[in-house]
Amino acid sequence: MAAFSERMGLLFLACLLLCLSATQAVDRGNFKTCDQSAFCKRQRAMKPGQSAYRALLDTLELSDSRLTLQLINDNNKVRLLLELYRLQGNMTRVKINELKPLKPRYEVPDVLITDPPTEPLSVLSQDENGVVLSLGAETRRLIVSARPFRLDIMEGPQVLLSLNSRGLLAFEHLRLRKDTLSDKISSTVGSMWDKIKNVFSSNSQTDPAGAERTEDSDTADQHVEEKAADGESDKEDEQPGEWDETFKSHTDSKPNGPSSISLDFSLPGVEHVYGIPEHADNLKLKTTDGGDPYRLYNLDVFQYELYNPMALYGAVPVLLSHNAQRTMGIFWLNAAETWVDISSNTAGKTVFGKMLDYVQGASETPQTDVRWISESGIIDVFIMLGPKPTDVFSQYASLTGTQSFPPLAALAYHQCRWNYNDQDDVRAVDQGFDDHDIPYDFIWLDIEHTDGKRYFTWDPNKFSQPRDMLQNLMDKRRKMVAIVDPHIKVDSGYKIHNEIRSKNFYIKNKDGGDYEGWCWPGSAGYPDFTNPEMRAWWASMFAYDQYEGTMENLYTWNDMNEPSVFNGPEVTMHKDAVHGNWEHRDVHNLYGFYVQMATADGLIQRSGGVERPFVLTRAFFAGSQRFGAVWTGDNAAEWDHLKISIPMCLSLGLVGISLCGADVGGFFKSPNQELLNTALIREVVRQRYTLLPYWYQLFYHAHRTGNPVMRPLWVEYPEDVATFAIDDEFLLGRDLLVHPVTEEGARGVTAYLPGSEVWYDVHTFQKHNGGQNLYIPVTMSSIPVFQRGGSIIPRKNRPRRSSSCMESDPYTFYVALGSQKTAEGELYIDDGHTFNYEKQRQFIHRRLSFANNVLASSNLAPDAQFSTASWIERIIFLGAHKPSAITLRMSDGSESPVEFEFDAAMSVLTLRKPGMNAGADWTVVLR
């Protein structure tokens, strides 16, 4: 997508002597494996078997919208509270928490866009073994088994999904440390003796302790009593890393002790699972037996390796399963460090082995098992039952929201590097694009534009006149993005720092002082973005009278917001730092989410709620799609990184984040001419600009429905097993199939064309049948792209210096006829940058259809009002026959002939200058 960044942090990091590797790949020693993460190691040591948990059916309570039930661990007698909800849209929510925790456990706020609406639950049957609940549809049921505890979601005789079928539910309950426990027991016994003496000395007939007891003391005493009565202290011998943990030079204190949670899910009939970004890996997730689980923990991992499960900059705990019958999703709502284990009973079997099983009559049903392990919090999981891929997308969108609708310019080309030297450099780069006839919309400024890495400022020597610089860009209808990071230089002469400190908005260390770490400016404080007051203040700083030198064509980039702390454990924040009432370990993966939320709010507020923002973030979580864009971080200028960018963005699209890109040309290293060549760049960027109308309507639909813009083939061809593992080609919407060339020196690629329809090469208009692997010879300038037969795609074929310069330019419609000689498509137009499409319904949305030799444009939004100067200058039919005449009919009844040309060799019919307005009703009749 856009060249979001070309910063090169290696030199600076080396100068800071932070012991970060200067080799050609990530220094794995800086980041934990599961064995080095105490809670992951503890949980993973637990092997599948019979669960220790039992459902106490006599505690079952059922209301219209919720079922509650207590679970008991038969080993330590600790009780948990299970809550079940049937949600609208074919979803089920499962929550498990301690029944009486010593203190509240963290529950993730702000990610869900609303309290999910529920539907009635009803009990179909119950006995001593369990209870059967109706999930609405006659054949869809939820079965709660009592001993051991297990949940099964059924449809007819088929098990769709099971929880705890492998017995890996584990809930480390909050408890007192052994030395504290001994003191508590002694104190409790002494207190009881004192109270008994008081009773006898006063001859009181009332309970002397009654007025003193509190719920907290009840809970604490309950834990003491449980331990004393059941010998829990013997059964739960302290293990390494429960109360403190050391990694390299950092020790993580754990005042709340061990608090991790785990739950397993079984997916019968499933061999393909996807999601849980961000990882530099294939789209189809691998089994993790014999290696590390996939890790979800936002980290600054520069020079990241490919094809491994290491954590990267973002974490979206959503996994999708797919087979030819059904797509489902699991959303694990937990913001703590999380590991995901995947196992499969078909893993390692070759195609021949599977065929042999079939010939020999083997009856083993494929199954994938997924285990989630998080360091703290509660179990709060949403099971999205599909059944279609688009159903899962809409189900997840109903929970966390859809992709924000970006300004049109945000979908165009962005130019960035670390760093442009000064305003003259910016002017020269801007002019260079014009000289080379390459369009662009945004130029970016990295950290060096600030005054000594103080964000919300400008370098007084190199960027002394920022408004002049922005005005020069505005005169060319171009824009700028400037970086604003969430590490704040500790400097008493810096207004931003002084205000944050005076308002007590910094994250605290474990001892209560302001947390400080080392980042680009040196010693830095980290604002507590989990605090809504802090977020509101941060948003106010983007006002034009606060952020001096800014104008309406300046937008924002949030980097380093994992958060990155150069001298912290794993280059991030200490887990025992404190956000209000919560430790950083509870909220870590939410930090970047909140930074982007506050920044996007600031850009909206500065315009009085009129203008759509553009904010790029490096760290992200579930729901980040509501606030803007992400990119895949500090990649390398290598072919393998080009190739991996495809499954990385496909994975993000599956979990709601469609506005995704990778550094074009790479962040590290220098690309060769084949990988990055000026003439090729010019052609590719210009092609991008011609397709902006199509990209824009795809993002409009993503915003409305949650459907990804860039999508795997199986999303549109869910029954075609051949598509399930493909991640070197992709679809844009339904209608464009792209197979990039990702191998150096390639002379050809093999693309799979799915479905029973035909596909047209968009460059040559050659027609190919679907359902085949097609070998395509390529040159250095080739990008194989095909348009689906039966589709209509709008383009603007006059690329100019920026997208806004093309606002009133005419359209060309590409009508690719299917096997039935029909086609359909859409055209969406609005002003490209405000919320007026939503608030005042100022937009054009038209249906384009071709059938029975008639092409028609009809209004999909009769209540919307918008006008455009754009007109239709050309209509190109692919796979057409030569007509004898063509007539244009307008809504007022007027008719006029249309000039045309026909290429018999390619079956291409071209209508020239039919001339109707893009927002009008009309029909074109082929005779």
From TrEMBL:
Localization in the cell = Endoplasmic reticulum; Golgi apparatus
Could you list the residue ranges that cross the membrane?
none
Q: Name one molecular function that GO assigns to this entry.
A: glucan 1,3-alpha-glucosidase activity
Gene3D superfamilies (UniProt xref): Glycosidases, glycosyl hydrolase (family 31), Golgi alpha-mannosidase II
Q: Where is the composition biased (Basic and acidic residues)?
A: 210-232
Q: Which CDD domains match?
A: GH31_GANC_GANAB_alpha, GH31_N
Acidic residues biased stretches: 233-244
According to the entry, every stretch annotated as the Glycosyl hydrolase family 31 C-terminal domain falls at 706-793
What InterPro entries does its record include?
Gal_mutarotase_sf_dom, GH, Glyco_hydro_31_C, Glyco_hydro_31_N_dom, Glyco_hydro_31_TIM, Glyco_hydro_b
Look up the record and name the pathway of this protein: Glycan metabolism; N-glycan metabolism
Q: Which reaction does it catalyse?
A: N(4)-(alpha-D-Glc-(1->3)-alpha-D-Man-(1->2)-alpha-D-Man-(1->2)-alpha-D-Man-(1->3)-[alpha-D-Man-(1->2)-alpha-D-Man-(1->3)-[alpha-D-Man-(1->2)-alpha-D-Man-(1->6)]-alpha-D-Man-(1->6)]-beta-D-Man-(1->4)-beta-D-GlcNAc-(1->4)-beta-D-GlcNAc)-L-asparaginyl-[protein] + H2O = N(4)-(alpha-D-Man-(1->2)-alpha-D-Man-(1->2)-alpha-D-Man-(1->3)-[alpha-D-Man-(1->2)-alpha-D-Man-(1->3)-[alpha-D-Man-(1->2)-alpha-D-Man-(1->6)]-alpha-D-Man-(1->6)]-beta-D-Man-(1->4)-beta-D-GlcNAc-(1->4)-beta-D-GlcNAc)-L-asparaginyl-[protein] (N-glucan mannose isomer 9A1,2,3B1,2,3) + beta-D-glucose; N(4)-(alpha-D-Glc-(1->3)-alpha-D-Glc-(1->3)-alpha-D-Man-(1->2)-alpha-D-Man-(1->2)-alpha-D-Man-(1->3)-[alpha-D-Man-(1->2)-alpha-D-Man-(1->3)-[alpha-D-Man-(1->2)-alpha-D-Man-(1->6)]-alpha-D-Man-(1->6)]-beta-D-Man-(1->4)-beta-D-GlcNAc-(1->4)-beta-D-GlcNAc)-L-asparaginyl-[protein] + H2O = N(4)-(alpha-D-Glc-(1->3)-alpha-D-Man-(1->2)-alpha-D-Man-(1->2)-alpha-D-Man-(1->3)-[alpha-D-Man-(1->2)-alpha-D-Man-(1->3)-[alpha-D-Man-(1->2)-alpha-D-Man-(1->6)]-alpha-D-Man-(1->6)]-beta-D-Man-(1->4)-beta-D-GlcNAc-(1->4)-beta-D-GlcNAc)-L-asparaginyl-[protein] + beta-D-glucose
Q: What is its EC number?
A: 3.2.1.207
- Region (Disordered), start-end ranges: 201-262
Which Pfam families does the protein's record reference?
Gal_mutarotas_2, Glyco_hydro_31_2nd, Glyco_hydro_31_3rd
Is Signal found in the keyword set? Answer: yes
Q: Which UniProt keywords apply?
A: Endoplasmic reticulum, Glycoprotein, Glycosidase, Golgi apparatus, Hydrolase, Signal
Looking at the record, the residues that make up the Glycoside hydrolase family 31 N-terminal domain are 83-341
Per the record, the GO terms for biological process are: carbohydrate metabolic process; N-glycan processing
Q: Does the entry feature the keyword Endoplasmic reticulum, yes or no?
A: yes
PANTHER family to which the protein is assigned, alphabetical:
ALPHA-GLUCOSIDASE, NEUTRAL ALPHA-GLUCOSIDASE AB
Q: What is this protein called?
A: Neutral alpha-glucosidase AB
Q: Which organism is it from?
A: Anguilla anguilla
Organism classification: Eukaryota, Metazoa, Chordata, Craniata, Vertebrata
